Amino acid sequence: MPWRPRWRRGRMTEYTADDTEARALRRRLADKLRDDGALTGPEWHRIFTAVPRHPFVPRVFLPSPANDGRYRPLDGTRPENRSIWLRHVYRDDICITQLDGDDRAWEVASQEDELTSGDGDRVLEVGTGTGYNAGLLCERLGADAVTSIDIDPVLVDRARTALGVLGYTPTLATVDGALGFADAAPYTRVMATASFPSIPHAWIEQTSKNGLVLANLTRPLGGGALARLTVRNGTGEGRFSARSAGFMPTRSHHSPTALHLYRQVSEDQENAATVERADVDLNAVLDTPDIRFFVALRSDVEELGVRYPDHPAERWLLAPDGSWAFATTEAGRPTVRQGGGRRLFDEVAALYTEWIELGEPARDTFGLTVSPDSHVIWQGSPVGDRWWPLADSSADRSSTRRTPSGASTVKELGRLMTNRPADLDQRPRAHGMGIYKRYFDLIASGEKTTEVRVDDISRKRLKEGDLLRFKCRSEEVLTRITRIARYDTFDEMFEHEPVSSVDPNASKADQLRNIPEIYPPEREALGVVAIGIELVEAHAEGP
Fold first, then answer.
1. Can you tell me the distance from the alpha carbon of 194 to that of 177, in angstroms, rounded to the nearest whole number?
2. How far apart are the C-alpha atoms of 62 and 60, rounded to whole Å?
3. Cα–Cα–Cα angle for 152, 156, 157, nearest 5°?
4. Residue 192: beta bridge partners?
5. How far is CA 385 from the centre of its chain?
6. Measured between alpha carbons, how far is 196 from 38 in angstroms, rounded to an integer?
7. Which residues form the ASCH domain (predicted)?
C-alpha cells in the first residue's frame, strides 16, 4: 500500500482547501493526461487524481490578452479569484509563478511515466520548483524515499510549507543541482525537472547500478531533448524520448541570449554581407520538431525572429563567437546573408541534408552516452557507426571546444563504435511520426484511416505508396500511405475529408476546437496535409 498523507493535520487555509470544484478539475486533468498517453498506468492516474496542485501555486501570472509579452498576476488567495484561478491551475499548461516558468502537467506526467518509479525506489529530484512534483513522488513512494534539491532557497522554503500542508515531509535541500545530493545517495532514480546543458557526472556517480537518470538537455535551439539513461560502470546510456520536454534552464547556466548576440551585429556588417540565394527554407527547417531536435544536438546556434511593419520578416541564426546569418525574402525570392567566422546558414543547411540522408529519423531513434569526460549522441545503436560529439553550447568554449573529428571527445568510447547491428538494416525503410496514445490505438485497430498534420518541410517528402511508421512510447504500427491531399486550413480540410476517418470518436466541432491546442495559428499557416493510411503490420515493441 502506498504511503498516504494526512492532510487534515496540516495548516489548511481557505485557498488550499480541497473542495468539490478543485477535486473535479483535478480528476478531469488526470483523465486528460491518461487519454493523451502521458499516464499509461492506473497507479499514476490515481496519484494525479489524489494530490492537489493548487496549494503549490497560490499566485500565477497570465499572458496579456494582447499577446504582447506582458503578464498580469492572478492571486488565488483572494476568494473572488478562486474559480478562474483553479481552472488555470488544473489546465495542462505552464503555471507561471515567477515569470520564468514552472511545471506543465503533461511534461511532469510524462517524466513520471518515463521514470517508471516503483516500490523500493529512492528518487533524487533536481529542481524543486513549487514542490508539486515532489508531492507526486511522495504519494507514490513515501516521503522517506524522496529527496528534492533546488538552487533557490526561497523556492525550497515555499515548497516545504506547501508539502507540509498536505502532510508530505521529503528531504529538501538548497544546493546547486549539478552537484546532486550525496548525503542521501545512492538513488535508483534521478529526475531533473530543470534542464542542463549537459548531464552532470555527479548524477551518474550517485545513481546505483542499473538505476535511471531522466533529464532534459538545454540546447540553444531548444528541441526538448529528454534523455532516459541507464547507469552501469560509471556510464549513463539510453535513448531520447519521443516526447519533447521544455523545463526551465537552471539558473547556474549562463550563455549569451539570441537578442544580445543580435544586438552585436551592426547595420554596416549587414549591408556589407553578400546577398545569396537561400536553397533551403530556414523557417521550415526550424519549425519542424524532429529537424530542430537534430540541429539542436549538433550545433551551438541560437535563433531569433525579427519582424518589421514595412519589410519582410527575418529569421536569424547567431553563435557565441559573433557569427551570424539571416534569411528573408527580397524581391520575391528567398535570400540569406552571413557574417563572422562561420557560415551559420550553411552549417544548418548541411545538418538538414544530413538528417534527410539518415532517413528523416524521429527523435527517439537517437540516444546519448555519458562518461566522465564526454557526451556522445548516436542514432540507431550506441555501437553503430552513426555517432557524433554533443555540440558544446556553453558561452566560453575555449577550454572545451572539440576537434572537428570529435576524436578527443569519444576516445574512450571508440571500442564501442565499430560495428553496426545488422537488424537496423532489416527493418522496412519508413517515415516516422510520433502520436498520442488515443490516436495510436485508433490507427492500430484500423479505425483511423486519415492522419492530419501541418504541412511543414518534413511532410513535403511524403508520397503515395511510402511506408509510414507511427510511434507511441515503446509501441509502433507500420502503415502505407494511400493518398495525400493538401489544404490551406483545417476548416477547408474538413470540408473534403470524412470526419470519422480522422477521429471516429469526435465530432467535427470537437476536433476543430481541439486542433489549436496542438497547432497554433502560426503553424496552421504552413498549410494542412491529410494523409490517407492503411495498415501494413503492428509491433508490440519498438526497435
1. 9
2. 7
3. 120
4. 126
5. 26
6. 23
7. 433-537
**Which tens digits make up the pLDDT trace of 346-377?**
999 999 989 988 888 888 899 999 998 889 99
**Could you report the per-residue pLDDT of 5-25, keeping only the tens digit for each?**
444 444 556 788 899 999 999
Q: In what order do the strands lie in the sheet with 528-539?
A: 431-434, 467-472, 475-487, 528-539, 450-454
Of these ranges, 89-98, 173-182, 518-527, the one predicted with the greatest mean pLDDT is: 173-182
Give the chain's largest Cα–Cα span: 70
Question: For cell 503492428, what's the residue?
Answer: 538
The backbone torsions φ and ψ at residue 164, rounded to the nearest 5 degrees and listed phi first, read: -65, -35
Mean pLDDT of 172-192: 95
Q: What is the 3-state secondary structure (H, E, C) of 95-146?
A: CCCCCCCCCEHHHHHHHHHHHCCCCCCCEEEECCCCCHHHHHHHHHHCHHHE
The secondary structure of the chain in percent helix, strand, coil, rounded to multiples of 5, reads 35, 25, 40
Q: How far apart are CA 430 and CA 442, in angstroms?
A: 20
The whole-angstrom separation of Cα 420 and Cα 55 is 51
428 confidence band (pLDDT: 50, 70, 90): low
pLDDT reported for residue 68: 57
